[in-house]
Amino acid sequence: MAKKEKSEKLLEEINKKLDIMIEIQILEKSEDDQLKILKRLGYSSKEASEFTGISYSSIRHRKGWKE
Fold first, then answer.
1. What pLDDT, on the 0 to 100 scale, is given for residue 2?
2. Domain count of the fold of the chain
3. In a domain, 27, yes or no
4. What is the pLDDT of residue 3?
5. Contact, 45 vs 65, CB < 8 A?
6. Is the pLDDT of residue 1 over 70?
7. Of 17, 34, 62, 66, which is least surrounded by CB within 10 A?
C-alpha cells in the first residue's frame, strides 16, 4: 500500500513539472502562436487571457474566439 502511495506522489510531482515545462514552452512563443495553442487545448478566451496576460478584449476580437 505504501509503495502505491509513493508511486502516486511521484507521478503527481512529475505531472506538476511537466505542466510547468509546457507552460514555459507556450509562453516562449509569439502571442498569435500562444493563442493558437491554447485554442487547440480548449481554453476559453478568459482562461487564455489569464494564462498569457493578453487582454480579454484583445483575444475576443481575434478570429475564432467567441467567449
1. 85
2. 1
3. yes
4. 86
5. yes
6. no
7. 66
What is the domain extent for residue 46? 2-60
> What percent helix, strand, coil does the chain show, rounded to 5?
75, 0, 25
What sign for the dihedral angle of Cα 46, 40, 25, 59? negative
Q: What mean pLDDT comes out for the span 40-52?
A: 92
Give the contacts of 56 (CB within 8 A, at least 6 positions apart).
Answer: 45, 46, 49
Amino acid at 65: W
pTM higher than 0.90: no
Q: Please state the separation of Cα 40 from the chain's center in Å.
A: 10
Report if residue 67 sits inside a domain: no
